[in-house]
Amino acid sequence: MFKYKTLKKMIFISIILLMMVFSLSSCLVTDKTLTEKNNGDSLNLKINDTVEIKLESNPTTGYSWFLSDNIDETIVSVTGPEFRESKKDEELIGAGGFEIFTIKAIAKSKTDIILNYQRPWEEDVGSNSLKIHLDAFHMNIEEKDSGEAIRKAGKLLYNFHANENDCGAPGTGQIHWDIIAKALKDIKYDRYLVIESFTPDIELIARAASIWRETEKSAWILAEKGLTFLKGIF
């Protein structure tokens, strides 16, 4: 959930803008849709030809595709990205989809298209409003070391979801709360600890979060158990 380098991807596509379309990349010209499989390909276009670059993405993770500044916009025009949900997951909250860039040839020459998949805070964005929200449930799935992820977030950590591995009350499952508590103390975190849980009664959310059973007999019991546990470790 909080990896700077290992989750970063780059797509490199060379766009060669000529007056005629050659057979070098004829399959691409026919489809006029590029994906990650075309990373490193060269493409010949005529002026006014357009192609789409369609890349898998899930903005709810904080990652998005960004166009590198090296593109020559006197040769091509670029619009986007436009996010489109995956049809098979369109009813799921937080589901992924595709980011689509549209490239149009406007002059004869050659340019490169470089797209990076990254979180915007990996570089200085010049805003004090940008903060980080971590979630113990997701960190348990995605992180190698939840404590290290918290320490990397440091002073940027603004909100923390104290959820168990089954979205139940903290302290009733398999999360290593001793590691999380120590890391939060190490960075002197003094903001919110939120117990986020779900109920199978709300079918849409239950399906999105894969909740198939009650974790406690009632929401009050869950809240009381979780609060008692968190007070005990902090």
Task: Characterize the structure shown.
- The protein contains six helices and eleven strands.
- The chain is α/β, with parallel strands linked by helices and 234 residues long.
- The protein folds into two domains: 9-121, Immunoglobulin-like; 131-233, Divalent-metal-dependent TIM barrel enzymes (TIM Barrel).
- Strands 3-1-8-5 form a four-stranded mixed sheet. A four-stranded mixed sheet has the order 2-4-7-6.
- Strand 10 (157-161), helix 4 (177-186) and strand 11 form a beta-alpha-beta unit.
- Helix 3 (146-153) runs parallel beside helix 4 (177-186).
- It is elongated.
- The relative contact order is 0.14.
- The model is unreliable at 1-8 and 11-30 (pLDDT under 50).
Short précis:
By secondary structure, the protein is α/β, with parallel strands linked by helices.
Strand and helix map with partners:
Elements lengths: L8 E9 L8 H6 L1 E2 L7 E4 L4 E8 L6 E4 L8 E10 L11 E9 L3 E10 L13 E4 H7 L3 H8 L3 E5 L15 H10 L5 E3 L8 H6 L10 H15 L1
Parallel strand pairs: 1-3, 2-4, 9-10, 10-11
Antiparallel strand pairs: 1-8, 4-7, 5-8, 6-7
Helix pairs in contact: 3-4
